[in-house]
Queue: 4 jobs
Job 1
Amino acid sequence: MTTLPLIVNALGQLDNPNAPRSAEAAAELNPSSEQLTIDARTLADAHASGLTAVNITLGYTMGDLPPYEHTLHEIDVWDGIIRDHAADLLKVRTVADVHRARREGRIGVIYGFQNAVAVGNDTSRVATFAERGVRVVQLTYNQANHIGDGSMAPENRGLTDFGRGLVEALDEHHLMVDLSHSGERTCLEAAKTARLPVSINHTGCRALADLPRNKTDEELRLVASRGGFVGIYFMPFLNPSGHASAADVVEHIVHAVNVCGEDHVGIGTDGTVTSIDDLDAYRAHLAEHVALRREAGVGAAGERDDTLPFVLDLRGVDQFRDLIRLLEQRGYRSGRIEKILGTNFLDYADRVWAPEASR
C-alpha cells in the first residue's frame, strides 16, 4: 500500500513525551492537559505518521480534583491548544470534520472522556459537554463509579440505575458510549441498554490474553452486532507476559475481525505518535508510576514494574506503516486494511454523530 489510507486513532494522545514538562508529568498519577507538550516535533511527527484524526482524553479520570469543574477547564485548555495551532489541528464535531482535516493537511482532534464521573448526578450536563464539542464518553475507568463497575471492580455488578439513565442521555445527544475499561456486566448491559451503537475504543481480546482490561468474545460480538466499533490497543495487556509485540497487535486484530466482522474493528493505540527517546531513563521512573497507580487503586491487572505501556516494536512515526505491512503479510487486502485503519471508526461515528451535522 504505497499511499497511506485515512488513519483514525480511536484513543491516543498528542504530546512530545521527551519534553521536560511532559517527562515530569508522566511520573505523576494524574497529569493534566496543561502539562502536555504540543510543540513542533509533536505536530511534525503526527503529520509524518499519516495520522488523520485522534480521540484524545481530557477531563476528569481519577484523583481529588472537582470532576465537573476540572473537565470544563480541560475543554478550555484544548480549545486553546487547537486555536494556537490552527494551521495543524482541527476540532472534530462531525465526520465531515475528519474528512476536512485530511483534505487540508491538518490533524483532527476528537474530544473524549475516560471516565464519566464529571456528569455527577445530573444527566443534563451531557448537553453541556455535547455543546462544548465532546464526542466520546467512556462510562468508567478501572474502578467502580456511580455509573457502573470498571474492569478491576471485583463485584462485576453492571450498570446502576443512574448509569442506565446516563446511557439514554448520551444517546439523546448523539455521543459515543465507550465501554473501554468497563467490567464485563457493565459492558454487556450498556450495549443492550443503548439505542445507538456503542464502542470499545481501546481494548484487547480476552480469548488471547486473559486479563481484565481485555474483552470477552461475548462482549466483542454484542457490540459489533449492534453496529458498534472495537479498537485494538498497542498495550502490554495483549500478552500475558506483559511484553506485547507488534505480532500480538496483529493477532488481536485478526481475532477481533474473526469475532466481530471486518466492518467493526479498528485501532485505539492508547499512546502518542512521538516516541520516547531515552528508554533507560523512562524505565527508571516506570516502577514509581506503577506503584502510584497501585496505591491509588486505579491500576489494572497486568501492570508491573517492567511492563512498558506501549508496544516497543510498534511506535513512533512509522507505527501505522509498520502495522499495514504486517497486516499485508497476514494476507489482508487494502480494502480491509483501510477499514481497520480508519473508515470503520468513521462509519461508526456517522451512525452515532450524524444528527450533529444539522446543527
Job 2
Amino acid sequence: MTASAGSTASAGSTASAGSTASAGPTALAGRRAIVTGGASGIGLACAEAFAAAGAHVTIADLNGEAATAAAERIGGEAWQVDLGDTAALADLTLEADILVNNAGIQHVRPIEQFEPERFSLILRIMLEAPFLLIRAALPGMYERGWGRVINLSSVHGLRASPFKSAYVAAKHGLEGLSKVTALEGGPHGVTSNCVNPGYVRTPLVEKQIADQATVHGIPESDVVEKVMLTESAIKRLVEPAEVASLVRWLASDDARMVTGASYTMDGGWSAR
C-alpha cells in the first residue's frame, strides 16, 4: 500500500493489548508489524520472521516492485515509500504494534570530500524518518498499551570508523532517539531498543566494497578481511537471519522488560 501525508497506514487487523505466547507459529498472531527497507537484506529477514510467528507484516520500501513481491510471498502487504522525503511523513498516522526502523544507505568518503546533500539524505533516511515513523506509531501503541519499536542500528552506533561521517552520525543519533522513546514509552507498555550488528551479508555491504577499496587503496578482494572484519574476533559476516532472530525476540513478551538497550551482534568488535 502507499501512504501519503495525512493518511493512516495500517498493517492489518487490530491486536489486543493482552500478552501473546513468546514462541511458536502464533506467537505474534494479531500483531501488526511494519518493517522499513523490508524488501531485502535484514529487513526481509525480519519480515519473514514476523510472518512465521503469525504477525501481519507491511513491507515498507522505496522499491515498490520488490516490496510487493516480498509481501506476496509472506502473506503481507507492501508500502512503497521514499523515506528521504520526510515532508511527506510529517502528518502520517501508523497503526502498528511493531515498528522496525531498518532502512538505510551508505556512502564512503573522507569528510572533506563528503557531498553535503548526500550527508543530509543519509540523516533524513536513517534518523529523521525513524523519528517521524515513531511519532506516527506511538499514539496507537499508547492507546492499546502495547508496542515494540526496534531500531536497526549498527556497531557504528557505538563506535566510529573513518570515511563514514554521515552513517556514524545517523546511527549515534538513532541510539539517542531509541533511548528517549524507551523512557517516554515505558509507562504505556511500549519498549524501544537498538540492534547493533557488525557487517551483515546484505546488498548494502556488498555495495560498500568498491568504495572501501578506493579510499583504502587496496584491492576489492581484500576489503572484507582487511577492513570490514579487522576488529571482529569472529571472522565472518553476520547473516540476516541471525539479526532477525534477535529482532523477533525483542518483539516478544519475553522481552517486555527490555527497553532502552543496545544489543551488539558484531563478533566481538565492540568488546575492544
Job 3
Amino acid sequence: MKKNHTISMIAAIAACMVAATGCSTGMDNSGGASNTAAPAANTATAKKEKITLTMWGGVPAESGPQGVVDAWNAKNSDVQVKYERYVNDDAGNMKLDTALATEQDVDLFVNYTQTQLQRRIDAGFTQDLGTYTDYNIEEKIQGSGEWKMNGKYYAMPTSKSHYFVWFNKDLLDQAGLKVPTEWTWTEMSAYADKLKSDKRYGLVQHTEPLPDPLDSVSVKYGYTKPDGSSNMDHALYGKWLETMKAMMADGRATPPYAEQITSKMPVDTVFLKGEAAMLNAGTWIFRSSNNTKDNPRTFKVAFAPVPRLVDNASDFISRGGTGDSISINAKSKNKEAAWTFLKWYADGGMLPMVPGGRFPASKSVNQDEVMKLLLGDNAATYDQESLKRVLFNDVPKYARSLPKQVLDLRQEEYEKFFTGKQDVKATLDSIARRHNDYIKQTKK
C-alpha cells in the first residue's frame, strides 16, 4: 500500500469515528508477577502530577503483560501503566491504527511486522527514538538493525523469536535416533518415516510457518533476480514442494494439507498428546507445554534447529530475529515517561513475558534467569542441553517481511499443488508470474 493511500484510509476512518458514533469498525475490544524491580520514573512531569500511560499490545494480559504492568505500578505511584490488548490480525491492527488516527488513549504500542511499522511511520504515528540519547539500541539489542526504517529507529525491538523442531524424546530413543544438531529436509523426511505409526504422525506443523523454508531460500538468494524479475520460481522452491508432498502421500509422515486445513488440526495438542513425534513450531508452544493441567504429558521434550533446504550449512538462514518492536506515539503527551518505561521494559521489565514464550532481546537480561522462568517447575521434562543449542546459537536469522499480497498469492499456488490441482512446474510458473505482476503494480 502506498503512503498517500495509507494516510487517506486512516484519515477516512478518523473522520468516520469523529463524525458519527454509529460508524463502527466492528472490532472486538476484548483481550505473573515479575521479580524484576521497576525503577522510579525519573521525569519532571512525573514529579508534578500523576501520569497514566496506556500500552497497546497483541498478547493476552494474563500471558505476561499484566505481570509487567503490576511490577512497574508497584514501584511507580506517579507513573502508572495500563495495558490495552488488541488482537494481532487485520481487524485488530485496524483498531490500533484507528485509535492512533483519532488520538485516543495510546502512549506506547507494539508492532509485530516491519510492514505494520512502516505504515505507521508513513502516517506520522511514531516518535523518532533517536531523539533520546541515553540508550544505544544497537549496542543493547543484537539484530535490532532489521527494524531501522529510513535510517532511524521508530520502534525498539524487545524480544528474540526462535523457531525450531520439538521432539518426543522418548520416541526418538525408542527408534535409536539422535537429536539433530543441524540437518536437512531430506533427513527430516527420513526421521518422519521412522517415527510415524498407524496412530501417530511423524511431523506436524502450523500452517503459518509452513513456508518458512521458502523464505529462507529467498532471503539467501533474493526474492528477485538481478534483472528485477521474480526469483520465486527458484529450484529449491520446487524441492520443498516435492519433499512436503511426498511426506503427505501416506497420510502419516505428515498430515495431508487438505486434511489439516479442513479439520483445523490443533497441532500443538496433537504433539503434546503424543499423537505426533515432531512439531515444527517455536517458543510460543511453551505456554501449552508448561500447562500440564490442560496438556498432561509423560514424555520428555528435546529440540533441534529447523532443517535446511540448501546443502551447505553456512548458506542457511533461519527464521527468527528480533520482534515485538515498541513505538512511542508521536502525539503522546507523556513521551518522556513512556521512554523511561520502554527502557525498563526492554532491560528486564518484560521478564513476566518469558513463560509465554517471549524472550528478551536486550543484552542486559540474564540468560540463566530466562531459562528458569521459561521452564518453571517443569525443567526436568525438557532436554535442556538441546534447548540451549536452539535458543543461544549464532545461526543467521531473518524476520519475514513479505507484503501480505505476496504471501497470499504464494499460498494460493502451493495449496493447488498440495491438493493435486497443478504440478510443480505450473506452481512455480504461477507464483513467479503473479509475483511479477505484483512488482509491476507497485512500480506504477
Job 4
Amino acid sequence: MLSLGQLITWGLVYYTFPLFVVPMTEELGWSRSAMFGALSAGLLTAGLCSIPVGAWIDRGHGRLLMTGGSVLAAVLFLLWSRIDSLPMFYVLWVGLGACQAVTLYEPAFAVITRVYGPRYKQAILLMTFLGGLASTFGIPFAQFLIGEIGWRLSLDVMALIVLGVAAMHWLIVPGPQEEAVPIAAPKPLEEGGAKRSPLATAIRVPAFWGLVVAFAGYGLAFSAMSFHLIPLLDDRGVPIGVVMAIIALIGPMQVVGRVLLMVGQRHITTIQLGALIYFAFPVSMGFLATGITEVYPLILFAVVYGVANGLVTILRGMAVPEFIGPEGYGVVSGALTMPTNVMRAAGPVLASLAWGAFGGYTPVLWGLAVIMLIAACGFAAAAFLSKRA
C-alpha cells in the first residue's frame, strides 16, 4: 500500500509539472522561466525540510507527516486549479515542495526501515519496483485529463486522488506507539566517549561526504533531464509521438532494472551496483549529446538511462546503513537528501541558463555527463573509505 502511494504521489505531484506549463502560459501569459522558478522554489524547500523530516520519522511520526503531507498536497492542487497570481503560484509551490519532503521516497524509506529492520533491502526493492512506473502512469494520465477537461479541472481530479493517498497513509503507516525494528545492533560506545547523535556521528564518517557528492550530482542531472528532455527532443525535430514513446519507455526500464536486481541481489554488492550505475549515467548522457534523433538510438538511450535511474533510487536506500551505519536512518538519509534536493532545484534553472548561453542542448548534455563523472568519483571515494573504516 505504501508503494502504491509512491506510484501516485511521484506520478501526480512530481512528474506532471511540465504538462501544465504550456496551457497555463497560454491562458495566464506567464513566461516559462518564471514558472520553472516556482518549481525550483518547491524543490529547494523539499531539500531544506529533509533533515527535520528524517528526525521526526526516526521518532515514529511517519503516519502524521505522510498523511498531513498528502492532505496538504490535495488542498494545494485545489488552490492551483484556481490560481491567477504568479506570486501566489510561488507560495503554492513552496508548499508543494514541503509536501514532497514528507511523502516521497526518502520518508517512505525511513518508515520501511523502522518496520522491516534487517529486511529493509527487500522492502525497498518492492517499493521502488512499483514506484518506477510513476512517470509512465502520471504523465499520460495528466495529459489525457488536460486534453479532455482542461488544466484547471484536471488539478481538481488529481486533488481527489491524492486525498485518497492521504487516507491510505493514515491507515497503514505505523504511529509512534509501535516499536521500531533495529536494522542492526548499534556500535558499542567507546570507553570514556560521549554519546553523539546519529547525524553528528554520520558527518564524521568520510564516506558520508563521498555520498553527498555522488547523490547531489545525480540530483542535478536527474532534474535537468526530467524537465528538459521533452523540449530537447522537440528542438531536434523529433515527432511528438516518438517523444512521448521515449518518455513513456523510461519508467518501465526503471522497473526492468529493479526486477533484474531483485533476481540477482544475492550476487551483486552495493559497491558493484553503484559502479554500474555511475558508469551508465555519463555514457547515456554523452550518447544523447551526439545529436541522435532516430528512433532506435533514442530507444537505446531510454533503456540505459531508465535502468540506471531505476537502480540509483535503490542505491540511495541501501548505501546509508551499509556505508555509514544503521543508527538514525531517517535523519542521516535526510542529511544526504538535502544537498541532493538543492541540486534538483538548481538543475532545471541551470539547464535553462546553459541552453540560453550556448544556444542549444548539446553543451548542456556534455556538461551533465561531466557532472555525473564527478558524482561517480564521489561514490568511488565513499566505497573506498567505507571499507577502510
